[in-house]
């Protein structure tokens, strides 16, 4: 879709020139600018005062060398990144991703999305993202520790509890956060809430581990309820088997659904009897194994190599929780043909743009990532609050706050979509609602 507003079309052309080759970042910026066209027409001051110019340029991009020594004594070098996209509404906040697919383009796109997502949580946090092309898979604990220490030895000078507070993401779980935190403390001598997703013995929050998956289900439940539907007795397919997927599976099951499939980057399992989540937790959280092992102990389940086939399994509700671009247009069409009536994104940008359009055209309820998976970062902000107060809330307190936030996000984006003439398009509603708060804060703070 072309941008109709001449100023935004020109701005996009300049963003393309300046970020040539950053395909994922450009797709994301274009999609957000398309959604907010009616907003800037109503608020010309965002153009006149330079807010749009500043909004599409990250405040700071840091790229650095991460040298470390493997168990064989060989020197290895990875690349580290931190992109601080926007601090208009609070200190930068966003996860760190360790995966071979990490590039500056991917981190820039994630940081840009994070700014809008964090705005939707209603909490005072700006947007950032970081990571490395390091692959923790197959590395020993000591190798992961040495890598994390080297990564933090550079990163520590760019972060702080009131400037930038990273968290986990793909490949960065409790183990990595622990090693990163230890090194930050050693370098600075400060015992502070500089990372979230910490262990419970050193400042972590109860319910942070569960938050993204649970939050996804709370958001989706509210979206379903408004359409007269629910998780109860629904058949659900979830991709991934990491942090988000496991706790989405747990909550969806608690809400009465039958989850029949999960995956990892090698393939997927289909268990028509419903996934035995205790077994998945053993494989993934305890043994760091592969999802195919599930089928070895569950005769009712089949394992299939390759990821895309998971979307051919008939389901009522699909929750993509692995990675970006995992639902192609073809997969979207297959889901629609098989009667899927709701797709809600646990991963960041798992559906390609054409796929989103196909869902919207077919009347499928579509929960966009920046709204549906905001529960993780929202609970991270709650961890920051607890750290500042030197207090720990109970699981129930955190979970209740998380649920309130996710329900609030649904109503906020639904209302924004209605107000700006795109009722039912929650993708546009999320972009609009997220942008408005950031833009007003930027306007108030001037040219900075
Ligand atoms: P994990 O590393 O815990 O799990 C990722 C899962 O996705 C694993 O099962 C992994 O398989 C699979 N996966 C990764 N890359 C690919 C790929 N290229 N193709 C197919 N499968 C793949 O990460 P999280 O669960 O934390 O994150 C999942 C998604 O959710 C990401 O998009 C992340 O940005 C997003 N997210 C996470 C939040 C959080 O709080 N953790 C918050 C908000 C969003 P394998 O084990 O084989 O690599």
Brief summary:
Helices cover 48% and strands 15% of the residues. The two termini are 32 Å apart.
Describe the structure.
- The chain has 448 residues and is α/β, with parallel strands linked by helices.
- Helix content is 48%, strand content 15%.
- The chain is built from 17 helices and twelve strands.
- Strands 9-8-7-6-10-11-12 form a seven-stranded mixed β-sheet, sandwiched between helices.
- Strand 10, helix 12 and strand 11 (342-344) form a beta-alpha-beta unit.
- The longest helix is centred in the last third of the chain and has 25 residues, at 395-419.
- The radius of gyration is 21 Å and the shape is globular.
- The mean pLDDT is 97.
- NADPH dihydro-nicotinamide-adenine-dinucleotide phosphate is lined by residues 168-171, 173, 212, 240-245, 264-266, 307, 321-323, 346-348, 373, 376.
Which labels suit this protein?
single chain; 448 residues; alpha/beta; seven-stranded mixed beta sheet; five-stranded mixed beta sheet; 17 helices; 12 strands; binds NADPH dihydro-nicotinamide-adenine-dinucleotide phosphate
């Amino acid at each position: 879709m072309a941008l109709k507003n001449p100023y935004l079309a020109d701005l996009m052309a300049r963003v393309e020139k300046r970020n040539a080759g950053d395909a994922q970042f450009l797709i994301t910026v274009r999609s957000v600018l398309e959604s907010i066209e009616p907003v800037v027409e109503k608020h010309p001051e965002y153009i006149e005062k330079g807010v749009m110019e500043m909004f599409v340029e990250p405040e700071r991009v840091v790229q650095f060398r991460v040298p470390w020594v493997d168990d064989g004594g060989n020197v290895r070098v990875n690349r580290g990144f931190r992109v601080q996209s926007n601090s208009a509404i609070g200190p930068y906040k966003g996860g760190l991703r360790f995966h071979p697919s990490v590039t500056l383009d991917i981190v820039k796109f994630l940081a840009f999305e994070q700014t809008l997502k964090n705005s939707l949580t209603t909490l005072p946090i700006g947007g950032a993202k970081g990571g490395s092309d390091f692959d923790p898979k197959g590395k020993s604990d000591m190798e992961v520790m040495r890598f994390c220490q080297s990564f933090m030895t550079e990163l520590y000078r760019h972060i702080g509890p009131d400037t930038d507070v990273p968290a986990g993401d793909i490949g960065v779980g409790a183990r990595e956060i622990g090693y990163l935190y230890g090194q930050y403390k050693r370098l600075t001598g400060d015992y502070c809430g500089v990372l979230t997703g910490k262990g419970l013995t050193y400042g972590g929050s109860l319910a942070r581990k569960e938050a993204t998956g649970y939050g996804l289900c709370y958001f989706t439940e509210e979206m379903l309820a408004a359409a007269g539907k629910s998780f109860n007795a629904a058949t659900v397919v979830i991709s991934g088997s990491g942090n988000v997927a496991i706790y989405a599976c747990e909550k969806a099951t608690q809400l009465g659904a039958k989850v029949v499939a999960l995956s990892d980057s090698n393939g997927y399992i289909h268990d028509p009897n419903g996934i035995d989540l205790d077994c998945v937790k053993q494989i993934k959280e305890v043994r760091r194994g592969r999802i195919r092992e599930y089928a070895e102990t569950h005769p009712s389940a089949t394992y299939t190599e390759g990821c895309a086939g998971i979307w051919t399994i008939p389901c009522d509700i699909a929750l993509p929780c692995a990675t970006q671009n995992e639902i192609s247009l073809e997969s979207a069409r297959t889901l629609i043909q098989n009667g899927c009536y709701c797709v809600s994104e646990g991963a960041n940008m798992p559906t390609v743009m054409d796929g989103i359009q196909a869902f919207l055209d077919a009347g499928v309820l579509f929960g966009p990532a920046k709204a549906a998976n905001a529960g993780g970062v929202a609970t991270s902000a709650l961890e920051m609050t607890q750290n500042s107060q030197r207090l720990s809330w109970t699981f129930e307190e955190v979970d209740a706050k998380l649920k309130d936030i996710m329900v609030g996000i649904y109503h906020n984006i639904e209302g924004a979509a209605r107000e700006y003439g795109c009722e039912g398009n929650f993708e546009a509603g999320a972009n609009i609602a997220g942008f408005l708060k950031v833009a007003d804060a930027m306007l108030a703070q001037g040219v900075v």
